[in-house]
Amino acid sequence: MSLDEIGERAIIRRIREIVGEPSERTLLGIGDDAAVIDAGGRLLVLTTDAFTEWVHFRFDLISPDQVGEKALAATVSDCAAMGCAPRWVTVALSAPSELSIERVEEIYHGLARGAKKYGCDLVGGDTVSSMSDMTLALTAVGEPFGGRVLARSGAEVGDDVYVTGALGGPMAGLFLLQNAPELTLREEFHDSVRRYLAPEARVEAARILATRFPVTSLIDVSDGLSVDIHHLARASGVGFLLERALIPAEPSALRIAEAFDESIDLLVLHGGEEFELLFTVSPGEEDLVEAVRAETGLSVTRIGTAVDREDGIVLLDECGEGEPLEEIGYEHFGKRAGRAGEENRASGDGEAGTRH
After folding, report:
1. CA 225 to CA 267: how far, in whole Å?
2. What's the rounded Cα separation, in Å, for the pair 175 and 136?
3. CA proximity to 119, closest of 81, 80, 151
4. Residue ranges of the domains in the chain?
């Protein structure tokens, strides 16, 4: 059986079966945004992300330094998704021998810029040759902001569901780059293009949430809202009732969808590479909205409520009618996987904290 016949999630399940249960020094292994280890009484998180040319990026759509900075942001976002500060990052570069040193240097300028932005150190890695195309593999080590790690599990019935920022921008920006690159400099579309080319990890928002509010579960929206809300549901053993009218859409994504007669729900509900934080919190914590906005300028929006597991994940329309929110997103080796630029998705993460 080939990989594309079973898909990424089934591959990860089989890997978990082979690896087995970790030792007691590993507090959380495969199954979250990062693994959690006990390093002599000091909690650390570990996460690995890989970025492969023609799968995650194309050099005709994004510059080398943007590739580096974006890869760094995506990796440290996994630390933020655990309520942790990124501290150290290693980078492994696999590239064909004919790749120019100038391109490699530009990539590392982007990596260094991202590391400075998020307050972490680039501390090593590896460089190896490949037969074709380029791959970056980044590993990040982080520490909890508030003394505890926030995982996908922990949501309880009655908790409020929030998301930072607005959704749909990155995939709208990618759509524009692929289909109408001559329009990417237009001011009304600029924010979506910027969010695809230069996304931001919500590290500061994670710090505020982890240190000041009773967050019960947390994840970043790297695979798309519909996929990541299912991750929270499975890990926490709950369902969710979401209100479509409350889910914030990136304004420039709305304009792109209207201009090209594209589905805004496809972008907002099922697009990925957002790196916004999706989380649950105990009821009555509305003050977090103003706290995050005041310190970061970032909006936070309540979009629903955690309900009994048997109720499933339901999306309510403006009339109060509900339908199941289907889990639609990119899956490596799945039917929607393809070369970057052949899909409306260009990136996807597996369920493992230390990605396989």
Report:
1. 10
2. 24
3. 80
4. 3-144, 160-324
The CA-atom distances, in angstroms, between 54 and each of 58, 66, 134, 345 are 5, 15, 9, 12
At 188-203, the pLDDT tens digits run 999 999 999 999 999 9
Q: Which residues of the chain have pLDDT under 70?
A: 32, 330-356
The predicted pLDDT at position 140 comes to 97
> Among 95, 65, 32, which Cα is nearest to 222's?
32
Q: What is the pLDDT of residue 334?
A: 55
Task: Look at the alpha carbons of 350, 88, 95, 77 in this order and tell me if their dihedral is positive or negative.
Answer: positive
What is the dotted CATH code of the domain comprising 3-144? 3.30.1330.10
Position 195, amino acid = R
CA dist 308 and 241 (Å) reads: 10
| Alpha-carbon gap, residue 155 to 283, rounded angstroms | 11
pLDDT of residue 341: 40
The whole-model pTM stands at: 0.90
**Two tokens, residue 34:** 């990062």
Contact 339, 274 (CB under 8 A): no
Query: What CATH topology corresponds to 160-324?
Result: Phosphoribosyl-aminoimidazole Synthetase; Chain A, domain 2 (3.90.650)
